[in-house]
Specification:
alpha+beta, six-stranded antiparallel sheet, 3 helices, 6 strands
Length: 153
């Protein structure tokens, strides 16, 4: 059932994240004339947060699917984005499918490729004064283009 559901014993003593990940996606589509059209970036993390914020009973999956997919991808790929095991290839496909479904559900249109950019920043300290600058990103990672099942047809 992993990566959709996982069993851990941190239910009452969780290990909170010390960083925030913002996942952005853009798509590419090859037109009939052979030209490639690239979409603008879309902030998937903001879409997820907005959906959870306006849902009186958000599911655990809705709150954590994209974030858990990203952390599983990082755990299996490292910094070079090369899948070196069947599990790593599965996590890459899982992450790309989630992103493609989110983009297709929000924007529509047709596309065959997707690219992700993940900006990682430290969690702001509790009681941070309003109006202060947001934390400086510690990583701005641009993933390669991935072929996905055509969406929007």
């Amino acid at each position: 059932m992993y990566p959709l559901f996982e069993q851990n014993w941190r239910l009452f003593a969780p290990n909170p994240d010390s960083v925030n990940h913002r996942v952005w996606a853009r798509t590419a589509h090859t037109g009939h004339d052979g030209s490639t059209r690239v979409s603008p970036w879309i902030d998937l993390t903001t879409l997820d947060r907005a959906a959870v914020e306006h849902d009186p009973f958000p599911s655990h999956t809705a709150q954590n699917l994209l974030r858990r997919a990203w952390t599983s991808y990082v755990d299996t790929h490292g910094a070079d984005d090369t899948a070196r095991s069947p599990r790593a290839a599965m996590m890459q496909k899982y992450l790309s499918n989630i992103a493609a479904a989110r983009v297709a559900g929000h924007r529509g249109g047709t596309f065959e490729f997707i690219q992700l950019r993940v900006v990682t920043a430290p969690v702001a300290a509790p009681g941070t004064a309003a109006g202060r600058r947001p934390p400086t990103p510690v990583e701005n990672r641009l993933l390669p283009w991935w072929k996905v099942t055509p969406h929007g047809k």
